Amino acid sequence: MKVGLFIPCYIDQFYPDAAIATLQLLQKLGVDVTYPLNQTCCGQPMANSGFEHLTAGCEALFIQNFADFDYIVSPSGSCTLHLKEHLHSDHAPKTALDIRTKLYELTEFLTDVLEVKTLLARFPHRVGMHQACHGQRGLKLSQMSELVAEPFSKPQYLLDMVDGIEMVELTRPDECCGFGGTFCVAEEAVSVKMGKDRIADHVSHGAEFITSTDISCLMHLEGLLKRNGSKVKVKYIAEILNAS
Amino acid sequence: MTNRNLILTAVAKNQPEYQEIPDIPAENNIETETLQSFKQVLSDIGGTALEAKDIAELKVLIQTFFPESSRKVSTMQILSDIVDTDLSSDFPHDFEDVDVAILEGHFGVAENGAVWITEDKMGQRILPFICQHLVLIIHKDEVCATMQQAYAKVGTADYGFGTFIAGPSKTADIEQSLVLGAHGPKSLLVLILS
Amino acid sequence: MEKSKGTHAELAEQFNKDQSRVDWHDETLFWIRNKRDKAAGKIPEWEALREQASAIKNNVLSNLHTYLEDFEKRALKNGIQVHWAVDAAAHNQIVLDILKQHEITEMIKSKSMLTEECQLNEFLAVNGVDVIDTDLGERIVQLAKEPPSHIVLPCIHKKKEEIGELFYKHLGTAKGESDPQVLTAAARVHLRQAFITRRAALTGVNFAVAETGEFVVCTNEGNADMGAHLSEVHIAAMGIEKIIPERKHLGVFLRLLTRSATGQPITTYSSHFKKPRPGQQMHIILVDNGRSTQLGRPDFRNSLKCIRCGACMNTCPVYRRSGGHSYHNAISGPIGAILAPNLNMEKHTDLPFASTLCGSCTYVCPVKIDIHTQLYKWRQVIVKKGFADPAKAAAMKGMEFTLSSPARYRAAGKTGKWILKHVPVMVNNRLNAWYKHREMPAVPITSFRDWYIKNHKHD
């Protein structure tokens, strides 16, 4: 099983520790994982802004980098979802569609493909889970509150294997944080208010850390936390699952 | 081209390929305690449901609930000794001062506490809406579980006007505070006859 | 009616100046969303019901032409007069003509978002007809000279003290009175007078049944019925998409509608109008106003399945924190944002961007409209039609230039500056929008790629 690691551009640049944790966690679990050096971006920032027609270059590059892998794993539910829904190629349409089926967000890869049952990890802290929308409602990583359906959560299933962790309950377990790609600047006021409200929910329930399957949400929340001098920190889920 | 033809032509041109009407399963969830849940739901939405074993008890209940009401009317001749059953008038406005209207419904629906009533049972269409207090009478055996069952009961009945009434008239438009008696009846009493 | 001026983002920013008010608005609406969850949760077959409702509506859209003709035929047979209006102007004229025929200059109206869309009240006012809205929430915004901010809860943005002030001015309640019980009682007296004296009533339509030629109007207050049954002339206005095939399908929709809207099991009144009352005239106006155009847009046609429950607004984290008026359209919120560009794209280019694409709207929708997917698709259409801000378009091209080449991406990444400005969030030219309330992410010592080369190159 050859696994390609897709590290979205902003994680590469701003959150290398999250990417390193992802890589190390996969290696710890015995996965043959490679990071193709010529990767850049999934194209979502342009597509979500209405410029889908400008993403062909990114998509061609993605196909070039990842076509040969059995699985492609990424520490971002949002980028994974975007590719699963939109990756296409006029030159190699079949390859593009084929790649869509091989793409996994990290936690679903752990639960569904590797079928991980135990993890050697310790994180003795109070943690709030921020349900990233694209992972939850898009990739179905966990059940959403909108549906009348059985609850489940792949990320939580993994976090439950971590020694010492204490999860906090939230008043609104799956409300959007307001990041939303370019929304966070185009609709600055609402975006900030949404982020503040999410943080307040975690803080009022005593969270020391906010974790998520999407680092973009965490980047937004971290920006607000730091500005307000909060002691609460953000931690990408792989950093917890890989903690010792 | 007339507006009608313009619209129909545009619709015909733009509507997608035909898709079948789905089968509506007659019932996927039949409740067994329909009467009990009808009473519970009606109470949850601000109404009251009481059982009466016969007409005599029903009359007692009406008089207990509305001892002093000025104008009580009904379409049910059997109640003519306690209320006014002459509803003949050309003007719906003549019922503006009705205090209590007592009408016979066809059946109740357990899942939402609604009672189905048609024009022929109203005397006047306006009556169940303009009165200050409404009493609906249904038979104990005439309570179905869901709205699908309800429409199965309505079937192809021909009526000029029919309505489901679920509880008293209400509004929560001011800061979501529930207030009973918006424009219509301030209270609804459903009497369930054995 | 004072319409809001500005883009969604600008109006939302204004709304957010008063944070405690935003909290109040957000919490009120989320409370309703929670009530919806509870009500839906009591129906084990809820998801199957949504699927059925969606499939019925898909059938309606695919056979609308026939259903409209069927409905017309049966309604005529039932003694209802049927009118057709291609657009808002035609609709408004039909209403005016009917009123003129009867020499009526005062009308009452129950809730109809269609007449908001057509701006009927404004048109009638110019033509000497006075309209009183009888839904309490609508009457309140009418007195305040504002449009409704929500399709089900028209004055959800107003505090009871503000309503008390309006009633003090217009209905003569005591100064400072703000008890909802007292205010509602005052409105009851005031509006009863209108019901009793006015000869024409206009109502909306929730569903119209092709099989029987009847239409159904749902209210909690009973105002549609009070108006219709006391009037000499009842005019019902409906969009052509309100048709459903058979009476029994009401069983599906009435189970979903109010549970989705407010968490009630059903509205107090679900009234089925099939024939006029003896001596009464009943008219129905079938209005297109862009609907047949939307029907021809494969990506967007299923927005016409909407039954106007408002669940997408109550759940929308953006709507809750920006208020209905920020959408500057008769129908606000997520559904408004996908309906508005159909009628006037240029005026509403901002609305599909007033969303994080979180997807909550799509999954509360009782008829399964893929709202957030359509928001994404409208963005593409708006940009392709050339409505994008030129600065943003230039930035996007720059981004494409950099990200489509690994070498350029690495060069940009090395300086650290380009990426801070462009990836993935700061592409909007208001460069300080992130920083206003948020710290920038710290630039780490090394990128992941550089770390990987150093540590794993020779694995």
Automatic annotation (TrEMBL), chain A:
InterPro entries cross-referenced by the UniProt entry: Cys_rich_dom
- GO terms under cellular component: cytosol
Cysteine-rich domain mapped to chain residues: 3-84, 127-221
Q: Which GO terms describe its molecular function?
A: oxidoreductase activity
Descriptive protein name = L-lactate dehydrogenase complex protein LldE
**Species classification:** Bacteria, Pseudomonadati, Bacteroidota, Sphingobacteriia, Sphingobacteriales
UniProtKB/TrEMBL annotation, chain B:
- Domain (LUD) spans 88-193
Cross-referenced InterPro entries, in alphabetical order?
Answer: FTHF_cligase-like_sf (IPR024185), LUD_dom (IPR003741), NagB/RpiA_transferase-like (IPR037171)
Question: Which branch of life, at top level?
Answer: Bacteria
Q: What span is annotated as the signal peptide, if there is one?
A: none
Q: How is this protein named in the record?
A: L-lactate dehydrogenase complex protein LldG
Origin species: Pedobacter duraquae
The uppermost taxa in this organism's lineage are:
Bacteria, Pseudomonadati, Bacteroidota, Sphingobacteriia, Sphingobacteriales
UniProtKB/TrEMBL annotation, chain C:
Task: State the Gene Ontology terms under molecular function.
Answer: 4 iron, 4 sulfur cluster binding; metal ion binding
Which InterPro entries did the record assign?
4Fe4S_Fe-S-bd (IPR017896), 4Fe4S_Fe_S_CS (IPR017900), FTHF_cligase-like_sf (IPR024185), Helical_ferredxn (IPR009051), LUD_dom (IPR003741), LutB/LldF (IPR004452), LutB_C (IPR024569), NagB/RpiA_transferase-like (IPR037171)
Keywords in alphabetical order, please. Answer: 4Fe-4S, Electron transport, Iron, Iron-sulfur, Metal-binding, Repeat, Transport
- Per the database record, which ranges form the 4Fe-4S ferredoxin-type domain? 296-326
Name listed for the protein in its UniProt record: L-lactate dehydrogenase complex protein LldF
Q: Native species of this protein?
A: Pedobacter duraquae
Asked whether the UniProt record includes Transport among its keywords, one would answer yes
Q: Which GO terms describe its biological process?
A: lactate metabolic process
